[in-house]
């Protein structure tokens, strides 16, 4: 009888141990794969060193602990009230400042259209609002007003684009600057769209320069080799065309297979402007291709 009870205890203990191991392995904070979770897109734009939310103290409340004797509380000295921070006279609440503050201010002042910016390298409420507006317009994430590397890169490319380098005709012309990765449209020597951002062919699939014309258009084209939908498709060279991007446009580690990727609003506007026969001028070369 003692041997039976001993065997039952051993089996019970083994079952508890196994269940415990399984429960610890299923950590809800992990992806259960053992690999680190991928960093979010445009992580370089985020401010590092953010404070974690403090957790409440875990004071022991064991029922076996003896209650303390009631003591007469001693009067404490009157504590001086903590002074409250005075609001900024400009209403500025602390928008993060990036390492490219002055350069971004310079480019936004040159581009215009994003609000008042002061080129002094110091973040202000007006600067923050202008940078946020710029980031939202060109799909930069997070749009928190910080002048980080991606914001600096996009602002520089747009501000340095020379629209007159495009050999546009008298009619409508779509222009693609591969070097600066920008796109715009001209009609009769005047800009009717842009410049705006793009991402063209990656290494091994470089978008070729040259003069072409739109040969085919489709609101939603299916790509047979890559099995993906291409919204607002306008083909101008073989299997190469303009279309809305299906991934984060500012991820430079990837690129298209030769097509000219656009943000949604720009793909829509280019579609509204274009038609079969629209002239397309592509020049320069994407860095790294």
Please describe what this structure looks like:
The protein has helices spanning 2-25, 101-111, 125-137, 149-159, 264-273; strands at residues 172-177, 182-187, 190-197, 210-213, 216-223, 228-237, 240-244, 260-262, 279-283. α2 (101-111) packs parallel to α4 (149-159). Helix content is 24%, strand content 19%. The N and C termini lie far apart (81 Å). By secondary structure, the protein is an alpha+beta fold. β5 and β6 form a beta hairpin. Among the domains are: 101-159; 164-283, L,D-transpeptidase catalytic domain-like, CATH 2.40.440.10.
Topology:
Blueprint: H1 2-25, H2 101-111, H3 125-137, H4 149-159, E1 172-177, E2 182-187, E3 190-197, E4 210-213, E5 216-223, E6 228-237, E7 240-244, E8 260-262, H5 264-273, E9 279-283
Parallel strand pairs: 1-9, 7-8
Antiparallel strand pairs: 1-2, 2-3, 4-9, 5-6, 6-7
Sum up the structure in keywords.
single chain, alpha+beta, L,D-transpeptidase catalytic domain-like, five-stranded mixed beta sheet, four-stranded mixed beta sheet, disordered N terminus
Helices, by number, come to 5
Topology pattern, helix = H, strand = E: HHHHEEEEEEEEHE
Our estimate of the beta-strand percent is 15-25%
Could you state the CATH homologous superfamily of the domain at 164-283? Answer: L,D-transpeptidase catalytic domain-like
**Average of the residue pLDDT scores:** 77
CATH topology value of the domain at 164-283: L,D-transpeptidase catalytic domain-like
Helix vs. strand class: alpha+beta
* Top CATH class of the domain at 164-283: Mainly Beta
- Report the helical percentage: 10-25%
Question: Based on CA inertia axes, which overall geometry fits?
Answer: globular
Q: Give the oligomeric state of the chains in this entry, treating copies of one chain as homo and distinct chains as hetero.
A: single chain
Q: Segments where pLDDT lies below 50 for 5+ residues?
A: 1-73, 82-91
Distance between the termini: 81 Å
Radius of gyration: 30 Å
| Strands, total number | 9
- Biggest sheet character: 5 strands, mixed
**CATH architecture type of the domain at 164-283:** Beta Barrel
Spatial strand order of the main sheet: 3-2-1-9-4
Signal peptide: 1-25
Pfam families: PG_binding_1, YkuD
Region (Disordered): 31-99
Protein name: Murein L,D-transpeptidase
